[in-house]
Amino acid sequence: MQVLKFGGTSVANAQNINKVAAVVEQYIGKQKTIVVVSALSGITDKLIETGKRASQGDESYKELLKEIEERHLQLVRELIPVAQHSSILSTVKKKINELESVCEGVFLLKELSARSLDHITSFGEQLSSLIISKRFESGGMKQLWVDSRELICTDENYNAAAVDFALTNKLITDFFQQQDSSLYLLPGFIASDKNKHTTTLGRGGSDYTAAILAGALNASVLEIWTDVSGMMTADPRVVANARIIPKVSYKEAMELSHFGAKVIYPPTIHPAMNKNIPIVIKNTFAPQDKGTSIETNPDSSDREVCGISGIGKIALLTLEGTGMVGIPGFSARLFNALAKEKINVILITQGSSEHSICVAVNEEVAIKAKLAVNEEFKHEIQNGRVLPLQSETDLCIVAVVGGNMKNHPGI
Ligand code: ADP
Ligand code: ASP
Ligand code: MG
After folding, report:
1. Structure confidence by residue, pLDDT tens digits, 178-199
2. Per residue in 119-154, is it b (16+ CB within 10 Å) or e — as a string?
């Protein structure tokens, strides 16, 4: 069993989807294959914008809906032979009608909850996967379309839900044991909570869907097919002469992606690493390229640094005060206050004197963080033992990553 995931640009239009089909076709008959697909590139952003405009009472959301509909209908026209149009066009129309009803509800209520937003964004992957499934079928590639929401169960943390692995692994193994198809197609990114409400796994989450399936089924390999020929020494959009890294360890890949290498969504590594499943990053537009293999102990004796990555729009929050020194519990209270507001901490440092703790967070949550922390420490701030939280914005984190650096003084 192997799992292949194709991202937004790989499925952006008919020409690209035909390339995807050509890649998948080569595997047919060799081993059982699961294909996971993203929404067409740009569609998730557009769906989010549609929901936002509807919730602001802005009727122009309807124009966006029309654009989304037209893009998918056009794709069907270009991708599927005319004789087979009717069923898939009616499937697409039905999905679009459902999406319209949800958006109308949001428009009337002028309210967009995180749950409604997940419902709305889920249509991107639902539509792309249904159309691609039809394309496979019309090209003689027999496969089974499976709704990922039936297999991946999460908590209710909409927009970036956490997977219930005990239940999910059981649902996945039970399901695939009962099937004998050699090719499966699933939408990435989407899942459901215990009440069967649609949830999503966070932006870029289709990679994670594929990893969850690969982990549960002990796949022989997880291939992430994208628009670059592997993980590179730096973001190719920023550094023109970035090079492909042929092999990286799971830990190095985790660090590079955590600090901004968008080519793989950070949570993806964990389910594969747990089962020692190699992750291979491949280019849909240059399938002959070797790509990058992510594995446990790659031979990397020839290098100390494997790559550099960076994240912008960072705020650095500093909690400082002479009253913190030697008193247990300060850090716990700081992180609890942030956790209660669901604020993700990207980086932590503490001065050795215990006089200050710094955390880096996304700039957009800096104000929320400041309010929460100042509230938590209001008594200490009043009596001067702690200073109000300081926040510096417009910063960037740059990470230099390499498993061998620790053995080489001076780097
Ligand atoms: P997909 O839609 O296939 O999931 P993404 O856009 O999420 O693709 O990720 C691929 C993109 O990640 C590349 O086009 C590249 O611009 C960007 N990227 C950022 N950092 C790196 C890196 N270190 N190596 C490779 N690609 C990177
Ligand atoms: N379509 C989703 C997004 O744009 C998930 C993905 O592409 O991985 O974030
Ligand atoms: Mg991606």
Report:
1. 999 999 999 999 999 999 999 9
2. bbbbbbbbbbbbbbbbbbbbeebebebbebbebbbb
